[in-house]
Specification:
Radius of gyration: 21 Å
Number of helices: 12
Order of helices and strands: HEHEHHEHEHHEEHEEHEHHEH
Strand content: 5-15%
Low-confidence stretches: 1-15
Mean pLDDT: 92
């Protein structure tokens, strides 16, 4: 009798998450990629991929989700990042289960895929996704080596100030290192440090990669973004190793990291061919 009760308990627990709210684009995309997008009953204003995600009820912005809206959707679980820890405590007090995940480093992303796969009983799908990600990472190795790479985040038309770059604790840094190269920006400053032109020149990168996912929306061309960099006295400008990744997944730590890695592979092959 006890065995039967335990089996029923675990079965109910396993399939209880039929109403999920995803509180970031990355989380939303991972859930969809594992085949559970139909279980998402709400996400944020910025969750627009895949197309079906656009039609899901919105609960507010990434940093400002609406508690009343979340409650009205009657979720079984709300999956969120660490910045929403305060909201997690509020929801838990109201009897709603939450899961907090990290998406800062490359290992964080891998762990999150595994965690969400476990929560949604999609372990095999998660394992397959991680295998694809690992292959994409492996394919980057050794194309070019010992290059200083600077990843810039934004749509800078002027390089005088406020240039956001990938710092040491982000998954971009992990990817650069795994490829056999180094981050041109060496500092203990975390996240997305803000530099000015003098700082940029001091890093003297061999390759500059501009992550500009809203280039088209802003009506900008490649030359608008690249030309300011070509004027700098840095190695990347001399060799014309300034590249743009303008896809909407640039900077989103989800399953679409595989596409980003493929873009990087193309950039490295271009550098190698020069």
């Amino acid at each position: 009798m006890i065995k039967i009760v335990l089996v029923l308990f675990f079965a109910l627990n396993l399939f209880s998450y039929d109403r999920i709210i995803a509180l970031s684009p990355s989380i939303n995309e991972i859930i969809f990629s594992l085949g559970s997008g139909d279980k998402i009953v709400g996400n944020t204003d910025f969750c627009n991929y895949p197309k079906k995600a656009k039609d899901k009820p919105k609960v507010g912005g990434y940093f400002s989700p609406n508690l009343e809206k979340i409650l009205s959707l009657k979720p079984d679980i709300v999956v969120m990042q660490q910045s929403s820890r305060k909201l997690s405590l509020q929801l838990e007090k109201l009897g709603i289960k939450t899961k907090i995940v990290k998406l800062t480093t490359l290992q964080d992303i891998k762990d999150t895929v595994t965690i969400i796969g476990d929560v949604l009983d999609k372990k095999n799908e998660a394992k397959l996704l991680l295998q694809k990600m690992q292959k994409a990472l492996y394919d980057l190795k050794g194309i070019v080596t010992d290059k200083k790479i600077l990843i810039v985040i934004g749509h800078n038309l002027s390089l005088e100030k406020r240039i956001f770059v990938a710092g040491q604790n982000l998954y971009f840094d992990d990817i650069i290192n795994l490829s056999g190269n180094t981050n041109a920006f060496k500092s203990q400053r975390k996240g997305q440090p803000i530099l000015n032109m003098e700082n940029i020149i001091a890093t003297n990168p061999d390759i500059v990669i501009l992550l500009s996912p809203y280039k088209k929306q802003k009506g900008l061309s490649d030359s608008d973004l690249i030309n300011p960099w070509l004027k700098l006295p840095i190695e990347a400008a001399k060799k014309q190793n300034i590249y743009i990744i303008d896809k909407d997944y640039a900077g989103i730590a989800s399953n679409r990291l595989i596409y980003f890695l493929d873009d990087l592979k193309g950039i490295f092959q271009s550098v190698k061919s020069k």
